[in-house]
Design a protein that fits this description.
With 556 residues, the chain is of the alpha+beta class. The chain has 14 helices and 21 strands. It is 37% helix and 15% strand. α1 (4-18) packs across α2 and α4 (215-225) packs antiparallel against α5 (230-242).
């Protein structure tokens, strides 16, 4: 049970997060719930959607409008939003909307107030409100049932759930606390249950369009969660690792209907897009594994730093080793010792120009992750399985490092990706990742740092673009072709620190948290010229929120 002091801190943090809940970029929701509440376009009410895997919001309509009116028939607009309730109008008896369990909403108001519910099929119904309120229950088929509610009880329970969550929120530097509280809300808001996993809690990238546990996202999200809820952080890794194939390959996504682990599992529209692009791997008769870059050991180490769990660590470490072995046994597609991405999705950077050419693609980021992961495995085995032989991991890391360094183009002054053996000249953030090994030759290391400091390439006002601003493929708005992503910035900052540039690393971290504050929240990606959300980026994005928290803690 919370002490009065902890409860007061939790309430203050909840109120800070509430300052960002605009019901446009941040909907009203509840941990474990699939319901989302947004403002209506006319601002005179709210609308209700469900959150479902691979379905757009418009396809998940429950109520197109919930309009509250006073006794005189005047519309009562949304006047305040807090994590546990939405208020309409003003006054001591102002109507409020809250959750009544994960599958229902509760709405109550003073005498004479009424609500109009506009259903997705167009029909309307009206109800008188009272202090007891009405309970709006939403079924799995999005069907709505109305019954008498216990609004006071629902409101108290919803507030209790959110205060329990905010009691775990990390305390950071004053100038970062408000955004940290909002980012902690994002992580709680994005918790869903996956029916196939029983009561397992997956923190999804976003309830708006990304309702599943993506492997890469789970790693970044766990790294942020560890600062307040290490148990939930471990749960993310457990779900990500649990569905490995017999050969060790980890799936790209674990979702409510199963997993996404092969191009056979893609919608036909995705395969058709790849065929039109001339991809050699889009033939649906030849399935290609879909996974994500090998940062599993990195995430495992960081989560264990927050709270040790030796028995759990040994189980997960075995899964990480099998996944690492899979990359070398099954994804070295040209047999030269350096694994490749067999599909753009497996890179996490789907739209990067390094995939404009032929596939499979050998990329310096993948080589870097593999070097680092073999070293992570060596260290983790030394800690949790001290009798284990580590020679093969040490030797493989050395071999991969040599192959990685061979990707350096001295004339271009950068690491180059290769598509089916052909050099790819695009100047992208993947070429900066080898700094993370911490063992590059001094000249190479210094050249990469100089690139990061070059205002014509990567030293833009708001942060580190994913494609150099001087490159012909640069676009300030297009996914992985120029916008700033929080995860790549955080990884490059780690690389600067590992390579002997700690002050430059701190500068990049400060710049990254400043970007999120300036941009108004943890968006999916940002325009590097304006520092604002890119037009098509998702809002309230999980890994951006988690990594902001991780950066804020480290900077505090």
């Amino acid at each position: 049970m919370m002490t009065d002091a902890v409860a007061a801190d939790a309430a203050a943090l909840s109120a800070l997060a509430g300052q960002h809940l605009d019901l446009v970029t941040a909907p009203f929701t509840l941990p474990r719930s699939r319901l989302l509440v947004f403002r209506t376009d006319d601002g005179e009410g709210v609308r209700v959607h469900t959150s479902e895997y691979e379905k757009r919001l418009d396809a998940c309509r429950v109520l197109d409008a919930v309009r509250v009116r006073d006794a005189a028939g005047r519309a009562l607009p949304v006047s305040d939003v807090q994590p546990h309730r939405i208020e309409f109008g003003a006054g001591a008896d102002a109507p409020t909307l809250t959750f009544d369990g994960p599958g229902a909403l509760s709405l109550a108001g003073g005498d004479g107030t009424r609500v109009t519910l506009v259903h997705a099929d167009g029909h309307e119904e009206q109800h008188a409100l009272s202090a007891t309120g009405i309970r709006i229950s939403v079924g799995a088929d999005r069907a709505v049932e109305i019954e008498t509610g216990d609004h006071a009880g629902a409101l108290a329970e919803c507030e209790r759930q959110w205060l329990d969550w905010f009691a775990r929120c990390p305390l950071v530097r004053d100038d970062l606390q408000r955004m940290t509280a909002f980012c902690w809300w994002v992580l709680g808001a994005n918790i869903v249950e996956l029916p196939s996993l029983g009561d397992a809690r997956a923190v999804v990238p976003s309830k708006i369009g990304y309702v599943g546990l993506w492997q890469w996202d789970a790693y970044f999200i766990a790294v942020g969660l560890r600062h307040g809820d290490p148990e939930l952080a471990r749960e993310q890794l457990d779900i990500a690792f649990r569905f490995a194939a017999d050969d060790g390959q980890l799936p790209d996504v674990v979702h409510e209907n199963g997993i996404l682990a092969s191009s056979d599992d893609l919608p036909e529209s995705d395969r058709a897009t790849l065929r039109r692009a001339g991809s050699r791997i889009a033939d649906p008769s030849k399935p290609v594994p879909l996974t994500k870059p090998p940062l599993a050991g990195w995430a495992l180490r960081k989560v264990l730093e927050a709270e040790d769990a030796p028995d759990w660590a040994r189980v997960q470490l075995d899964r990480v080793i099998r996944s690492q072995d899979w990359w070398f046994a099954s994804s070295d597609l040209d047999g030269d010792g350096m694994p490749e991405y067999g599909h753009p999705y497996s890179s996490g950077l789907d739209d990067s120009p390094i995939f404009d050419g032929p596939i499979p693609t050998a990329a310096p980021d993948l080589g870097t992750y593999l070097v680092c992961q073999d070293r992570e495995i060596t260290d983790l085995l030394g800690r949790y399985v001290p009798d284990a032989r580590v020679d093969r991991f040490v030797e493989r890391a050395e071999r991969t490092q040599a192959l990685l360094e061979a990707m350096w183009d001295a004339e271009a002054g950068r690491f180059l990706a290769r598509g089916a053996g052909e050099d790819i000249r695009s100047d992208t953030v993947v070429g900066l990742m080898p700094l993370r090994t911490g063992t590059l030759p001094e000249g190479t290391r210094d050249a990469l740092c100089a690139a990061i400091d070059d205002p014509a390439r990567y030293a833009l006002e708001w942060g580190l673009p994913t494609v150099a601003a001087s490159d012909q493929d640069f676009s300030a708005e297009r996914m992985w072709r120029g916008p700033i992503w929080i995860n790549t910035s955080a990884l490059v900052a780690e690389g600067l620190e590992a390579s002997g540039f700690p002050e430059r690393a701190r500068e990049l971290r400060e710049q990254t948290v400043r970007l999120v504050v300036h941009g108004g929240g943890p968006h999916e990606y940002y325009n590097p010229h304006t520092g604002l959300k890119a037009q098509t980026a998702t809002t309230a994005f999980g890994w951006s929120a988690a990594l902001f928290i991780d950066l804020a803690v480290s900077l505090s």
